[in-house]
Specification:
This protein has 239 residues and is α+β, with helices and mostly antiparallel strands. The chain has five helices and 13 strands. It is globular, with a radius of gyration of 17 Å.
C-alpha cells in the first residue's frame, strides 16, 4: 500500500521541465512543495489530453462515476497492478484513463505495532519519481460539481522496500511514460510497464514522527529521525 507520498521540488517551473510540459500559470501560482500528501488531498497528475500532455488537479482516492458519494475514494487510494485491468472499479480507467502521479518519494512505516517509525523512500538524486496512476471523474450529488480523482497502482516491492512493506507504488521509467499515457497502448502492453523501482533509483531515510499526522506538511516531516535512547536506527542502502 502507498498511503503517503511527497513532492518537494521547489517550484512549478522545475516540475514542468522534469515532466516535459508547458508551464501553466494558474497551476504555477498554486503550486507548493508537499512533504506529506495524504488520501483525499488534491494533487497534480499528468495525462494525455486533446491538446497533448497536460498537468491537471485531482483528488487522491478514486471515486467511480457510479458512486453515491466521495467516501468510496478512501478505499481506493491504491489499485493492485496485477488485477486493476480486470477489477470493475478500475477496468475502464486502466483501459482509457491512465495518468502519472509526480512525486519524489513515498512513505511506509517500519517496526512493531505501537512503535512504528516512518521511512521515506525517495529519489537518490533528489529528482522526480513517476508513479503510475488511474483517474476518474465523479459528479458529486451534494455539490453538483464534477471532480477528478485518482488512484496509485502498486506492485510487489523491490529489495529496498521489501523489509518494510509487501507492496510499493509502480514506478514508471521516463522512457515508458508516453506508452503508459497513450490511449492507443493496449492493456497487456500497459500492464507490462508496471514494475517496482529499479535498483539504485531510491534510498530510504528514517524520518520524523511529525509525518504521522496528516495535518503536518512542512520540511520538518522529512527531517532524519533521532533513534530512541539506547538504539540505533537501521541503515538503509540503495535499492
Amino acid at each position: 500500500m502507498c498511503g503517503r507520498f511527497t513532492l518537494t521540488l521547489p517550484d512549478y517551473d522545475t516540475l514542468a521541465r522534469a515532466l516535459g510540459v508547458v508551464v501553466d500559470p494558474e497551476l504555477a501560482a498554486r503550486y507548493r512543495p508537499r512533504y506529506n500528501v495524504a488520501p483525499t488531498n488534491v494533487h497534480l497528475v499528468v495525462r494525455d489530453g486533446d491538446a497533448g500532455r497536460q498537468v491537471v488537479s485531482a483528488r487522491w482516492g478514486l471515486v467511480n462515476a457510479w458512486a453515491k458519494d466521495r467516501s468510496a475514494g478512501l478505499k481506493q487510494i491504491n489499485a493492485r497492478s496485477e488485477t486493476a485491468a480486470e477489477k470493475p472499479a478500475f477496468r475502464s480507467a486502466f483501459a482509457t484513463r491512465r495518468c502519472v502521479v509526480p512525486a519524489d518519494g513515498f512513505l511506509e512505516w517500519d517496526g512493531p505495532k505501537g512503535a512504528r517509525r516512518p521511512v521515506w523512500f525517495h529519489a537518490a538524486d533528489g529528482g522526480l519519481v513517476r508513479l503510475a496512476g488511474l483517474y476518474e471523474s465523479f459528479d458529486d450529488p451534494t455539490t453538483g460539481e464534477r471532480e477528478r480523482t485518482f488512484t496509485i497502482l502498486t506492485t510487489p516491492p523491490n529489495d529496498l522496500v521489501a523489509p518494510v512493506h509487501d507492496r510499493m507504488p509502480a514506478v514508471l521509467l521516463p522512457a515508458d511514460v508516453s506508452a503508459w499515457l497513450a490511449g492507443s497502448t493496449d492493456v497487456a502492453t500497459a500492464r507490462a510497464l508496471l514494475r517496482p523501482a529499479r535498483a539504485g533509483l531510491l534510498v530510504a531515510t528514517a524520518v520524523s514522527p511529525r509525518v504521522n499526522a496528516v495535518g503536518n506538511d512542512d520540511p520538518g516531516c522529512l527531517a532524519p529521525a533521532d533513534p530512541p535512547r539506547g538504539e540505533t536506527l537501521p541503515l538503509f542502502g540503495r535499492g
